[in-house]
Design a protein that fits this description.
199 residues, single chain, elongated, 7-stranded mixed beta sheet, 2 domains, Endonuclease, Chain A, alpha/beta
Length: 199
C-alpha cells in the first residue's frame, strides 16, 4: 500500500506542477514533445515495475492445496537453482511438479533438506539432486522455505510458508536484501555443515 501511495503522491505533485505552469503545447518543438513523452512513459514504467515488485514480495494467502501447488509450480518453472527446506515435501507428488523437479535434479539445480527421505526424494537424488535428511541429526526446524535462484544473489529470494490452524496457507517472498533471507541461508549452510560432518 505504501509504494502505491508514494507513486500517487508523485503523480499528484506532477499534475499540480503542470496546472501551475500551464504550458502551451503549441509552442513545443517536436523534440520537446518526444522528450516529454519519453519522460511520461519512464514514469509509468517505473511505477508499474515498483508496484509489481511490491505485490510479488507481499504476503499472499492460498486457501487450499491446489492453489499452493499452482504457486509452487509457477515458482519452480521460472527459478534457477533451488534449496528447499521442508518436512516431507509431500507437495512434490503432483506429476507436473515432479517433472520440473526431475529436470532441475538432472541439471544439478536442486537441494532438499527434509526430516526423512521419501521414495520420491530418493528418485530425485538418483537423478542428481542433493537430499539432506536432517532428522538423523536430531534436528527438526519449524520453518519451511525455499531459496530461489540460490546461485545468483542478485535475483535470489526466499519464499517462506506459514500456516496457523483453520487459516489459509500464507507465503511471503523476501529478497536478498532482507535479513530473513540471510538467516535462511545461514540455517541451510549450518544444516549442510552438520550433515557433512555427521556423514
Amino acid at each position: 500500500m505504501k509504494p502505491f501511495l508514494n507513486w500517487a503522491a508523485a503523480l499528484a505533485s506532477i499534475i499540480g506542477l503542470f496546472f501551475t505552469l500551464k504550458p502551451n503545447f503549441s509552442e513545443f518543438s517536436a523534440w520537446q514533445i518526444v522528450g516529454l513523452t519519453i519522460a511520461i512513459l519512464m514514469f509509468i514504467g517505473a511505477a508499474l515495475s515498483d508496484l509489481k515488485d511490491t505485490y510479488r514480495l507481499s504476503k499472499k494467502k492460498y486457501p487450499n492445496k491446489k492453489k499452493i501447488n499452482n504457486y509452487m509450480h509457477s515458482m519452480l518453472k521460472t527459478a534457477g537453482a533451488c534449496e528447499i527446506c521442508s518436512r516431507d515435501a509431500s507437495w512434490i507428488l503432483e506429476d507436473r511438479i515432479m517433472k520440473l523437479l526431475e529436470d532441475k535434479a538432472r541439471k544439478g539445480e536442486l537441494t532438499f533438506l527434509v526430516h526423512q527421505k521419501t521414495e520420491e526424494l530418493k528418485k530425485l537424488e538418483k537423478l542428481g539432486a542433493k537430499v539432506i535428511d536432517y532428522g538423523k541429526l536430531g534436528f527438526d526446524p519449524l520453518t519451511r522455505f525455499t531459496i530461489v535462484n540460490a546461485n545468483n544473489k542478485n535475483s535470489s529470494y526466499v519464499a517462506i510458508g506459514q500456516q496457523r490452524p483453520n487459516e489459509s496457507h500464507i507465503i511471503e517472498e523476501l529478497d536478498s536484501s532482507n535479513p530473513t533471507f540471510s538467516i535462511a541461508v545461514d540455517l541451510i549452510n549450518s544444516i549442510k555443515a552438520a550433515y557433512d560432518k555427521h556423514n
